[in-house]
Amino acid sequence: MASRLVTSSSRRGKKLNIKDFSKIQRCITGDVKQLSAKVSAPTQAMIKGDHAFQAMIKDDEKVDDKLNNSLKDQDFFKVRNMVTLRDLFNARVHFGHDAGCRNPYITPYLFGSRLGMDIFDLEKTLPHLGDALNFTAHVVYRGGIVLFVSRNRQMMPHVEKTAYECGEYAHCRYWYGGSFTNAEQQYGMMTRLPDLGIFINTLNNVFEEHRAVTDFAKMLIPTVGVVDSNCDPRLITYPVPGNDDTPVAVHLYLRLFKEAILRGKQKRKEDGL
Fold it and tell me: Where in the sequence is the signal peptide annotated (predicted)?
């Protein structure tokens, strides 16, 4: 017996046959298809967007894995073998200032005093320099900005040239206090501060500490610095005890930090970061 559909019209005595039921079913099916087409367009866009978002997450995870793997190697950039104890000795890194100018906090890094002049223990300087170079390369590998800082007028052109050659920045002029802590008011906009400061000299003169050392410390920006026997190493994140006045020693520091930065950038490029 054929199925019959009873509607409001059947109440008036009219009954629908199978053909009428088929027409109604086709109408309903068409409405459903149109509705699904309207809904599916944004839904598909959401699905595509979700796939793109998932792809971004996977890419970020790959980047994180590469960055974390770089920390497992103690010398990922092979910077510790760029310099030897003999290189430091030939560059006169072991010469300090007059013993009367000695900062008490630098005493652990000294070998002793000869003819009234402090002498650095290069066996302690070498690992500190290796740590500083390694940290510098890691910061650059992660896309960080490096700022070279120095007030040695004799070496200013060389510091600026080194920063230019490795694609970073240098500040060798007078440092106004609050350049970092009050950056938004001074520059009138949000300014990205450097991720690392490299101090070739941590003093403005024989007795006055460079103001940028305090600014970096207040903003919790890590620093690498050459600290002579008359310097305070406490505010420097990675102090390198050694001579910061002799040109041949400063040229050695600049060459090493430049090479460390270039190695970090090259490795970043190779890993597609």
Answer: none
Q: Cα separations (Å) of 95 from 128, 193, 230?
A: 17, 34, 12
**Gap between the Cα atoms of 193 and 191, Å rounded:** 6
Structure tokens at 193: 């501060």
Q: CA separation (Å) from 151 to 57, 158, 159, 194, 214?
A: 45, 12, 10, 18, 15
Confidence check: pLDDT of 46 > 80: no
Question: In the chain, what percentage of residues exceed pLDDT 90?
Answer: 63
Residue 232 DSSP class: -
Angle between helices 18-70 and 122-141 in degrees, nearest 10: 160
Gap between the Cα atoms of 216 and 193, Å rounded:
10
Integer angstrom CA distances of residue 52 from 42, 60, 62, 241? 15, 12, 15, 50
Alpha-carbon 152 to chain mean position: 27
pTM here is 0.78
Angle formed by the axes of helices 247-270 and 156-165, nearest 10°: 10
pLDDT band at 27 (very low <50, low <70, confident <90, very high): low
